[in-house]
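Materials and Methods. Structural model of Glutamine synthetase. The 483-residue sequence of Glutamine synthetase from Ceriporiopsis subvermispora was retrieved and submitted for structure prediction as follows.
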Amino acid sequence: MQTPTSLAPKTSAELKKLLEHDTKVKVAGIDVDGVLRGKYMSKEKFISVATSDGFGFCSVIFGWDMHDMVYTKELLISNRANGYRDLLASIDLSTFRRIPWENNVPFFLVSFLDPDTKEPICADPRGVLRKVIEQVGSKGLKCYAGCEYEYFQFQETPHTLAEKKFTNLQPLTSGMHGYSLLRTQLNTEYFNDLFDESTKFEVPLEAHHTETGPGVYETALAYTTADRMADNAILFKFLAKSIGMKRGVVPSFMAKPWGNLPGCSGHIHVSLRDEHGRNIFAVSESELRSGRSGASHSETRFFSEEGEYFLAGVLDGLPDIMPLLVPTINGYKRLVGGEAFWAPNAVTYGYDSRAASIRIISPPSVPKAATRLEIRVPGADMNPYFALSAIYALGLRGIEKKLKLPGPPISQLTPEDKLTGKVKMLPQSLETATERMLRPESVAREVFGDDFVDHFGGTRQHEVRLWNEAVTNWEVERYLELA
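The predicted structure was written out as C-alpha coordinates:
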Protein backbone atom coordinates (compact mmCIF):
# COMPACT_ATOMS: atom_id res chain seq x y z
CA MET A 1 0.00 0.00 0.00
CA GLN A 2 1.21 3.52 -0.69
CA THR A 3 2.78 5.32 2.25
CA PRO A 4 0.55 8.14 3.52
CA THR A 5 3.42 9.85 5.28
CA SER A 6 7.18 9.97 4.91
CA LEU A 7 7.39 9.17 8.63
CA ALA A 8 6.12 5.61 8.13
CA PRO A 9 8.66 3.23 9.74
CA LYS A 10 10.44 0.52 7.77
CA THR A 11 12.54 -1.19 10.46
CA SER A 12 12.15 -2.15 14.10
CA ALA A 13 14.58 0.60 15.07
CA GLU A 14 12.58 3.22 13.19
CA LEU A 15 9.38 1.91 14.77
CA LYS A 16 10.78 2.12 18.30
CA LYS A 17 11.97 5.65 17.63
CA LEU A 18 8.61 6.65 16.19
CA LEU A 19 6.70 5.34 19.22
CA GLU A 20 9.27 6.50 21.75
CA HIS A 21 6.82 8.65 23.72
CA ASP A 22 3.71 6.49 23.26
CA THR A 23 2.27 3.85 25.58
CA LYS A 24 -0.33 2.28 23.26
CA VAL A 25 -1.18 1.83 19.59
CA LYS A 26 -4.51 1.45 17.81
CA VAL A 27 -4.86 -1.14 15.03
CA ALA A 28 -7.82 -2.06 12.81
CA GLY A 29 -8.82 -4.18 9.84
CA ILE A 30 -11.91 -4.11 7.67
CA ASP A 31 -14.75 -6.66 7.54
CA VAL A 32 -16.91 -7.48 4.51
CA ASP A 33 -19.39 -4.70 5.37
CA GLY A 34 -16.63 -2.10 5.42
CA VAL A 35 -16.71 -1.78 9.21
CA LEU A 36 -13.42 -1.13 10.98
CA ARG A 37 -12.69 -3.85 13.55
CA GLY A 38 -9.77 -3.16 15.86
CA LYS A 39 -8.33 -2.60 19.31
CA TYR A 40 -5.66 -0.93 21.39
CA MET A 41 -2.37 -2.76 21.87
CA SER A 42 0.40 -1.96 24.31
CA LYS A 43 3.41 -0.43 22.63
CA GLU A 44 5.57 -3.36 23.69
CA LYS A 45 3.19 -5.97 22.25
CA PHE A 46 2.78 -3.99 19.05
CA ILE A 47 6.52 -3.62 18.44
CA SER A 48 7.07 -7.33 19.10
CA VAL A 49 4.65 -8.38 16.31
CA ALA A 50 4.88 -5.43 13.91
CA THR A 51 7.72 -6.77 11.78
CA SER A 52 6.75 -10.46 12.05
CA ASP A 53 3.97 -12.41 10.31
CA GLY A 54 1.43 -10.67 12.54
CA PHE A 55 -0.68 -11.40 15.58
CA GLY A 56 -3.76 -13.50 16.26
CA PHE A 57 -7.15 -11.89 15.53
CA CYS A 58 -10.42 -13.74 16.01
CA SER A 59 -11.82 -14.90 12.66
CA VAL A 60 -15.39 -14.27 13.83
CA ILE A 61 -15.18 -10.80 12.26
CA PHE A 62 -15.66 -12.64 8.95
CA GLY A 63 -18.33 -14.87 10.45
CA TRP A 64 -20.80 -12.27 11.61
CA ASP A 65 -22.56 -9.25 10.14
CA MET A 66 -22.28 -5.56 11.00
CA HIS A 67 -24.44 -6.08 14.10
CA ASP A 68 -22.39 -9.08 15.27
CA MET A 69 -25.07 -11.62 14.30
CA VAL A 70 -23.46 -14.89 13.23
CA TYR A 71 -24.15 -15.71 9.59
CA THR A 72 -26.95 -18.17 9.04
CA LYS A 73 -24.90 -20.50 6.84
CA GLU A 74 -21.42 -21.90 7.14
CA LEU A 75 -18.97 -19.79 5.15
CA LEU A 76 -15.39 -20.41 4.06
CA ILE A 77 -13.87 -18.02 6.56
CA SER A 78 -14.74 -18.30 10.24
CA ASN A 79 -17.24 -20.99 11.09
CA ARG A 80 -18.49 -23.03 13.97
CA ALA A 81 -16.65 -26.13 12.77
CA ASN A 82 -13.19 -24.70 13.46
CA GLY A 83 -14.27 -22.83 16.58
CA TYR A 84 -13.57 -19.40 15.08
CA ARG A 85 -9.82 -19.90 15.20
CA ASP A 86 -7.47 -16.94 14.93
CA LEU A 87 -6.43 -15.37 11.68
CA LEU A 88 -3.09 -13.62 11.29
CA ALA A 89 -3.42 -9.84 11.36
CA SER A 90 -0.49 -8.49 9.38
CA ILE A 91 0.38 -4.90 10.26
CA ASP A 92 0.86 -2.54 7.31
CA LEU A 93 3.50 -0.14 8.57
CA SER A 94 3.03 2.12 5.55
CA THR A 95 -0.44 3.09 6.84
CA PHE A 96 0.95 4.82 9.94
CA ARG A 97 -0.80 7.99 11.02
CA ARG A 98 -1.95 9.52 14.28
CA ILE A 99 -5.56 10.05 15.31
CA PRO A 100 -5.70 13.77 16.15
CA TRP A 101 -9.02 13.61 18.03
CA GLU A 102 -7.73 10.75 20.23
CA ASN A 103 -4.68 12.49 21.68
CA ASN A 104 -2.62 11.64 18.60
CA VAL A 105 -2.54 7.92 19.35
CA PRO A 106 -0.58 6.01 16.66
CA PHE A 107 -2.79 4.08 14.22
CA PHE A 108 -2.08 1.29 11.72
CA LEU A 109 -4.24 -0.78 9.40
CA VAL A 110 -3.89 -4.55 9.17
CA SER A 111 -4.60 -7.17 6.53
CA PHE A 112 -5.78 -10.68 7.39
CA LEU A 113 -3.82 -13.80 6.41
CA ASP A 114 -4.49 -17.52 6.62
CA PRO A 115 -2.42 -18.76 9.60
CA ASP A 116 -1.31 -21.89 7.69
CA THR A 117 -0.43 -20.50 4.26
CA LYS A 118 0.36 -16.90 5.26
CA GLU A 119 -1.64 -15.87 2.18
CA PRO A 120 -4.44 -13.26 2.26
CA ILE A 121 -7.80 -14.80 3.10
CA CYS A 122 -10.30 -14.69 0.25
CA ALA A 123 -12.70 -12.30 2.02
CA ASP A 124 -10.26 -9.70 3.37
CA PRO A 125 -11.14 -6.44 1.59
CA ARG A 126 -7.57 -5.13 1.56
CA GLY A 127 -6.26 -8.45 0.28
CA VAL A 128 -8.86 -8.63 -2.49
CA LEU A 129 -7.97 -5.16 -3.75
CA ARG A 130 -4.25 -5.79 -3.49
CA LYS A 131 -4.60 -8.91 -5.66
CA VAL A 132 -6.47 -7.00 -8.38
CA ILE A 133 -3.94 -4.15 -8.28
CA GLU A 134 -1.13 -6.67 -8.70
CA GLN A 135 -2.90 -8.18 -11.72
CA VAL A 136 -3.19 -4.74 -13.27
CA GLY A 137 0.42 -4.04 -12.33
CA SER A 138 1.57 -7.14 -14.22
CA LYS A 139 0.47 -5.29 -17.36
CA GLY A 140 2.73 -2.36 -16.49
CA LEU A 141 -0.21 -0.24 -15.30
CA LYS A 142 -1.07 1.50 -12.05
CA CYS A 143 -4.56 2.12 -10.67
CA TYR A 144 -5.62 5.62 -9.59
CA ALA A 145 -8.94 6.54 -8.04
CA GLY A 146 -11.03 9.09 -6.21
CA CYS A 147 -14.16 8.69 -4.07
CA GLU A 148 -16.98 11.12 -3.34
CA TYR A 149 -19.38 10.65 -0.45
CA GLU A 150 -22.79 12.21 0.06
CA TYR A 151 -24.11 11.76 3.60
CA PHE A 152 -26.90 13.05 5.83
CA GLN A 153 -26.22 14.61 9.23
CA PHE A 154 -28.61 14.18 12.15
CA GLN A 155 -28.61 16.21 15.35
CA GLU A 156 -28.66 13.02 17.38
CA THR A 157 -26.42 10.71 19.36
CA PRO A 158 -26.19 6.90 19.41
CA HIS A 159 -28.31 7.03 22.59
CA THR A 160 -31.08 9.18 21.12
CA LEU A 161 -31.15 7.01 17.97
CA ALA A 162 -31.91 4.00 20.15
CA GLU A 163 -34.40 5.88 22.34
CA LYS A 164 -36.30 7.11 19.28
CA LYS A 165 -36.07 3.69 17.63
CA PHE A 166 -34.51 5.46 14.63
CA THR A 167 -37.70 7.42 13.90
CA ASN A 168 -38.49 11.15 13.91
CA LEU A 169 -34.82 12.06 13.71
CA GLN A 170 -33.74 15.70 13.65
CA PRO A 171 -31.75 16.73 10.55
CA LEU A 172 -28.79 18.95 11.27
CA THR A 173 -30.27 21.64 9.02
CA SER A 174 -33.57 22.04 7.21
CA GLY A 175 -34.40 22.43 3.54
CA MET A 176 -32.67 21.64 0.25
CA HIS A 177 -29.50 23.72 0.16
CA GLY A 178 -26.87 22.32 -2.21
CA TYR A 179 -23.59 24.27 -2.37
CA SER A 180 -24.87 26.65 0.29
CA LEU A 181 -22.49 29.06 1.97
CA LEU A 182 -25.13 29.89 4.58
CA ARG A 183 -26.00 26.42 5.83
CA THR A 184 -22.36 25.64 6.70
CA GLN A 185 -22.36 28.58 9.11
CA LEU A 186 -25.06 26.96 11.26
CA ASN A 187 -22.62 24.22 12.32
CA THR A 188 -19.36 25.78 11.28
CA GLU A 189 -17.15 24.06 13.89
CA TYR A 190 -18.34 20.60 12.91
CA PHE A 191 -18.25 21.35 9.17
CA ASN A 192 -14.70 22.68 9.30
CA ASP A 193 -13.52 19.96 11.67
CA LEU A 194 -14.32 17.36 9.02
CA PHE A 195 -11.97 19.08 6.57
CA ASP A 196 -9.22 20.09 9.00
CA GLU A 197 -9.04 16.84 10.95
CA SER A 198 -8.97 14.89 7.68
CA THR A 199 -5.81 16.75 6.72
CA LYS A 200 -4.19 15.94 10.05
CA PHE A 201 -5.29 12.31 9.74
CA GLU A 202 -3.53 11.91 6.36
CA VAL A 203 -6.86 11.65 4.52
CA PRO A 204 -6.61 14.68 2.22
CA LEU A 205 -9.78 16.13 0.70
CA GLU A 206 -10.32 17.95 -2.59
CA ALA A 207 -13.72 19.49 -1.88
CA HIS A 208 -16.28 19.69 0.92
CA HIS A 209 -19.70 21.33 0.65
CA THR A 210 -23.40 21.02 1.35
CA GLU A 211 -25.49 18.88 -1.00
CA THR A 212 -29.20 18.89 -1.78
CA GLY A 213 -31.22 17.63 1.16
CA PRO A 214 -31.72 18.40 4.86
CA GLY A 215 -28.34 18.24 6.55
CA VAL A 216 -26.55 16.67 3.57
CA TYR A 217 -22.83 17.15 2.92
CA GLU A 218 -20.70 15.96 0.04
CA THR A 219 -16.98 15.33 0.42
CA ALA A 220 -14.56 14.48 -2.37
CA LEU A 221 -11.38 12.70 -1.31
CA ALA A 222 -8.14 13.68 -3.02
CA TYR A 223 -7.26 11.55 -6.06
CA THR A 224 -4.49 9.03 -5.37
CA THR A 225 -3.51 5.42 -5.95
CA ALA A 226 -6.44 2.99 -5.68
CA ASP A 227 -5.10 1.15 -2.63
CA ARG A 228 -4.52 4.38 -0.74
CA MET A 229 -7.93 5.66 -1.85
CA ALA A 230 -9.73 2.63 -0.40
CA ASP A 231 -7.95 3.13 2.92
CA ASN A 232 -8.75 6.84 2.88
CA ALA A 233 -12.41 6.23 2.07
CA ILE A 234 -12.87 3.85 4.99
CA LEU A 235 -10.95 6.12 7.34
CA PHE A 236 -12.94 9.18 6.30
CA LYS A 237 -16.13 7.45 7.48
CA PHE A 238 -14.41 6.63 10.76
CA LEU A 239 -13.28 10.24 11.08
CA ALA A 240 -16.71 11.72 10.28
CA LYS A 241 -18.49 9.48 12.76
CA SER A 242 -15.87 10.18 15.44
CA ILE A 243 -15.98 13.96 14.99
CA GLY A 244 -19.78 13.77 14.88
CA MET A 245 -19.95 12.01 18.24
CA LYS A 246 -17.88 14.75 19.81
CA ARG A 247 -20.30 17.39 18.51
CA GLY A 248 -23.62 15.63 19.02
CA VAL A 249 -24.03 14.80 15.32
CA VAL A 250 -24.61 11.46 13.63
CA PRO A 251 -23.44 11.44 9.99
CA SER A 252 -25.18 8.65 8.05
CA PHE A 253 -23.72 6.97 4.99
CA MET A 254 -26.90 4.95 4.49
CA ALA A 255 -27.75 5.01 0.78
CA LYS A 256 -31.42 6.04 1.06
CA PRO A 257 -32.52 7.34 4.48
CA TRP A 258 -35.62 9.08 3.07
CA GLY A 259 -37.99 7.67 0.49
CA ASN A 260 -38.94 11.02 -1.03
CA LEU A 261 -35.46 12.57 -1.17
CA PRO A 262 -32.32 11.89 -3.21
CA GLY A 263 -30.13 9.17 -1.79
CA CYS A 264 -26.46 9.27 -0.84
CA SER A 265 -24.00 8.36 -3.56
CA GLY A 266 -20.51 6.95 -3.31
CA HIS A 267 -19.26 7.86 -6.78
CA ILE A 268 -15.91 6.42 -7.80
CA HIS A 269 -13.49 7.99 -10.31
CA VAL A 270 -10.92 5.70 -11.94
CA SER A 271 -8.02 5.90 -14.38
CA LEU A 272 -4.90 3.93 -15.29
CA ARG A 273 -1.33 5.17 -15.73
CA ASP A 274 1.56 3.45 -17.45
CA GLU A 275 5.10 3.08 -16.09
CA HIS A 276 5.91 6.61 -17.28
CA GLY A 277 2.95 8.13 -15.42
CA ARG A 278 0.92 8.69 -18.60
CA ASN A 279 -2.85 8.43 -18.26
CA ILE A 280 -3.68 5.67 -20.75
CA PHE A 281 -7.32 6.77 -20.98
CA ALA A 282 -6.21 10.07 -22.52
CA VAL A 283 -5.77 10.54 -26.26
CA SER A 284 -2.66 11.95 -27.92
CA GLU A 285 -2.28 15.65 -28.65
CA SER A 286 -3.01 15.19 -32.35
CA GLU A 287 -6.11 13.12 -31.57
CA LEU A 288 -7.17 15.69 -29.01
CA ARG A 289 -7.09 18.44 -31.64
CA SER A 290 -9.06 16.50 -34.23
CA GLY A 291 -11.01 13.96 -32.19
CA ARG A 292 -10.01 10.26 -32.32
CA SER A 293 -11.08 8.94 -35.72
CA GLY A 294 -11.39 5.35 -34.52
CA ALA A 295 -13.72 6.12 -31.63
CA SER A 296 -16.77 3.86 -31.34
CA HIS A 297 -19.06 6.84 -30.76
CA SER A 298 -18.75 10.59 -30.82
CA GLU A 299 -18.92 10.60 -27.02
CA THR A 300 -15.65 8.65 -26.80
CA ARG A 301 -13.73 10.74 -29.33
CA PHE A 302 -11.57 12.19 -26.52
CA PHE A 303 -11.11 8.76 -24.90
CA SER A 304 -8.38 6.28 -25.86
CA GLU A 305 -8.85 2.84 -27.39
CA GLU A 306 -7.55 1.23 -24.17
CA GLY A 307 -10.02 3.37 -22.27
CA GLU A 308 -12.84 2.07 -24.46
CA TYR A 309 -11.80 -1.53 -23.77
CA PHE A 310 -11.76 -0.79 -20.02
CA LEU A 311 -15.17 0.90 -20.20
CA ALA A 312 -16.60 -1.99 -22.23
CA GLY A 313 -15.31 -4.45 -19.64
CA VAL A 314 -17.00 -2.61 -16.79
CA LEU A 315 -20.27 -2.36 -18.71
CA ASP A 316 -20.15 -6.04 -19.71
CA GLY A 317 -19.69 -7.32 -16.16
CA LEU A 318 -21.61 -4.65 -14.25
CA PRO A 319 -24.84 -6.65 -13.72
CA ASP A 320 -22.85 -9.64 -12.37
CA ILE A 321 -20.89 -7.73 -9.70
CA MET A 322 -23.65 -5.46 -8.37
CA PRO A 323 -23.44 -6.68 -4.74
CA LEU A 324 -19.83 -5.45 -4.70
CA LEU A 325 -21.00 -1.94 -5.62
CA VAL A 326 -24.38 -1.97 -3.85
CA PRO A 327 -24.07 -4.38 -0.91
CA THR A 328 -27.16 -3.51 1.16
CA ILE A 329 -30.92 -3.98 0.95
CA ASN A 330 -31.40 -0.22 1.20
CA GLY A 331 -28.88 0.60 -1.53
CA TYR A 332 -31.15 -0.62 -4.32
CA LYS A 333 -33.89 1.81 -3.28
CA ARG A 334 -31.52 4.62 -4.25
CA LEU A 335 -31.23 3.36 -7.84
CA VAL A 336 -34.42 4.84 -9.26
CA GLY A 337 -33.11 6.09 -12.60
CA GLY A 338 -34.47 9.19 -14.32
CA GLU A 339 -33.26 12.76 -14.17
CA ALA A 340 -34.61 13.66 -10.72
CA PHE A 341 -32.12 11.84 -8.49
CA TRP A 342 -29.29 11.00 -10.93
CA ALA A 343 -29.12 7.44 -9.60
CA PRO A 344 -28.88 5.25 -12.74
CA ASN A 345 -30.29 1.72 -12.76
CA ALA A 346 -29.23 0.54 -16.23
CA VAL A 347 -26.07 -0.42 -18.12
CA THR A 348 -25.42 2.97 -19.69
CA TYR A 349 -22.56 5.35 -20.39
CA GLY A 350 -22.24 8.86 -21.70
CA TYR A 351 -19.91 11.80 -22.12
CA ASP A 352 -20.13 14.02 -19.02
CA SER A 353 -23.59 12.58 -18.30
CA ARG A 354 -24.78 12.35 -14.71
CA ALA A 355 -27.76 10.30 -15.90
CA ALA A 356 -25.49 7.44 -17.01
CA SER A 357 -24.16 4.61 -14.87
CA ILE A 358 -20.68 5.42 -16.15
CA ARG A 359 -19.78 9.02 -16.94
CA ILE A 360 -16.90 9.67 -19.32
CA ILE A 361 -14.91 12.68 -18.14
CA SER A 362 -12.49 13.79 -20.83
CA PRO A 363 -11.49 16.89 -22.82
CA PRO A 364 -12.82 19.46 -23.36
CA SER A 365 -14.48 19.21 -19.92
CA VAL A 366 -11.15 18.58 -18.12
CA PRO A 367 -7.40 18.70 -18.85
CA LYS A 368 -6.15 15.68 -20.82
CA ALA A 369 -4.29 14.24 -17.82
CA ALA A 370 -7.53 14.20 -15.82
CA THR A 371 -9.36 11.94 -18.30
CA ARG A 372 -11.22 9.30 -16.30
CA LEU A 373 -14.41 7.35 -15.74
CA GLU A 374 -16.90 8.08 -12.97
CA ILE A 375 -18.79 5.01 -11.79
CA ARG A 376 -22.08 6.41 -10.50
CA VAL A 377 -23.82 3.20 -9.35
CA PRO A 378 -22.39 2.79 -5.81
CA GLY A 379 -24.02 4.45 -2.82
CA ALA A 380 -22.26 5.84 0.22
CA ASP A 381 -22.77 2.47 1.93
CA MET A 382 -20.33 0.71 -0.42
CA ASN A 383 -17.22 -1.10 0.76
CA PRO A 384 -14.63 0.86 -1.27
CA TYR A 385 -12.17 -2.06 -1.40
CA PHE A 386 -14.68 -4.37 -3.05
CA ALA A 387 -16.11 -1.64 -5.28
CA LEU A 388 -12.69 -0.62 -6.58
CA SER A 389 -11.66 -4.28 -6.95
CA ALA A 390 -14.72 -4.98 -9.08
CA ILE A 391 -14.24 -1.94 -11.32
CA TYR A 392 -10.57 -2.63 -12.01
CA ALA A 393 -11.04 -6.40 -12.41
CA LEU A 394 -13.78 -5.82 -14.99
CA GLY A 395 -11.80 -3.09 -16.73
CA LEU A 396 -8.71 -5.29 -16.96
CA ARG A 397 -10.85 -8.09 -18.41
CA GLY A 398 -12.11 -5.64 -21.01
CA ILE A 399 -8.56 -4.65 -21.98
CA GLU A 400 -7.38 -8.27 -22.16
CA LYS A 401 -10.35 -9.36 -24.28
CA LYS A 402 -10.47 -6.09 -26.27
CA LEU A 403 -14.20 -5.87 -25.66
CA LYS A 404 -16.29 -3.52 -27.76
CA LEU A 405 -18.69 -0.98 -26.32
CA PRO A 406 -22.28 -2.25 -26.22
CA GLY A 407 -25.07 -0.29 -27.86
CA PRO A 408 -25.30 3.48 -28.23
CA PRO A 409 -24.43 5.90 -25.39
CA ILE A 410 -27.18 7.32 -23.24
CA SER A 411 -27.49 10.49 -25.33
CA GLN A 412 -28.86 8.35 -28.16
CA LEU A 413 -31.41 6.45 -26.05
CA THR A 414 -35.08 7.17 -25.38
CA PRO A 415 -37.20 6.39 -22.30
CA GLU A 416 -38.89 3.63 -24.31
CA ASP A 417 -35.57 1.85 -24.88
CA LYS A 418 -35.67 0.45 -21.34
CA LEU A 419 -39.12 -0.98 -21.93
CA THR A 420 -38.18 -2.60 -25.22
CA GLY A 421 -35.04 -4.19 -23.85
CA LYS A 422 -32.64 -2.08 -25.90
CA VAL A 423 -31.07 -1.04 -22.60
CA LYS A 424 -29.93 -3.73 -20.18
CA MET A 425 -31.28 -3.03 -16.69
CA LEU A 426 -29.30 -3.61 -13.50
CA PRO A 427 -30.64 -5.92 -10.77
CA GLN A 428 -33.26 -4.07 -8.74
CA SER A 429 -32.75 -5.78 -5.37
CA LEU A 430 -29.95 -7.32 -3.36
CA GLU A 431 -31.66 -10.69 -3.67
CA THR A 432 -31.69 -10.73 -7.47
CA ALA A 433 -28.22 -9.18 -7.63
CA THR A 434 -26.80 -11.88 -5.36
CA GLU A 435 -28.51 -14.64 -7.31
CA ARG A 436 -26.98 -13.29 -10.50
CA MET A 437 -23.51 -12.99 -8.96
CA LEU A 438 -23.66 -16.59 -7.66
CA ARG A 439 -24.53 -18.14 -11.04
CA PRO A 440 -21.91 -20.65 -12.28
CA GLU A 441 -21.34 -18.57 -15.42
CA SER A 442 -21.13 -15.24 -13.59
CA VAL A 443 -18.39 -12.83 -14.65
CA ALA A 444 -17.79 -12.32 -10.93
CA ARG A 445 -16.59 -15.93 -10.66
CA GLU A 446 -14.34 -15.41 -13.68
CA VAL A 447 -12.53 -12.40 -12.23
CA PHE A 448 -12.63 -13.16 -8.48
CA GLY A 449 -12.79 -16.95 -8.22
CA ASP A 450 -15.26 -19.24 -6.49
CA ASP A 451 -13.94 -18.89 -2.92
CA PHE A 452 -14.54 -15.16 -2.73
CA VAL A 453 -17.85 -15.19 -4.61
CA ASP A 454 -19.26 -18.02 -2.49
CA HIS A 455 -18.18 -16.40 0.77
CA PHE A 456 -19.30 -12.88 -0.05
CA GLY A 457 -22.46 -14.14 -1.73
CA GLY A 458 -23.28 -16.07 1.43
CA THR A 459 -23.02 -12.90 3.50
CA ARG A 460 -25.43 -11.15 1.13
CA GLN A 461 -27.88 -14.08 1.30
CA HIS A 462 -27.81 -13.63 5.07
CA GLU A 463 -28.69 -9.96 4.65
CA VAL A 464 -31.58 -10.87 2.34
CA ARG A 465 -32.91 -13.48 4.76
CA LEU A 466 -32.99 -10.98 7.62
CA TRP A 467 -34.86 -8.49 5.42
CA ASN A 468 -37.38 -11.08 4.27
CA GLU A 469 -38.10 -12.02 7.89
CA ALA A 470 -38.45 -8.42 9.10
CA VAL A 471 -41.87 -6.84 9.71
CA THR A 472 -41.64 -3.14 8.85
CA ASN A 473 -43.62 -0.13 10.04
CA TRP A 474 -44.98 0.22 6.50
CA GLU A 475 -46.50 -3.26 6.67
CA VAL A 476 -48.09 -2.67 10.06
CA GLU A 477 -49.55 0.68 9.02
CA ARG A 478 -50.89 -0.74 5.76
CA TYR A 479 -52.33 -4.06 6.89
CA LEU A 480 -52.95 -4.13 10.65
CA GLU A 481 -56.44 -2.61 10.59
CA LEU A 482 -57.81 -3.21 7.10
CA ALA A 483 -56.39 -6.52 5.91
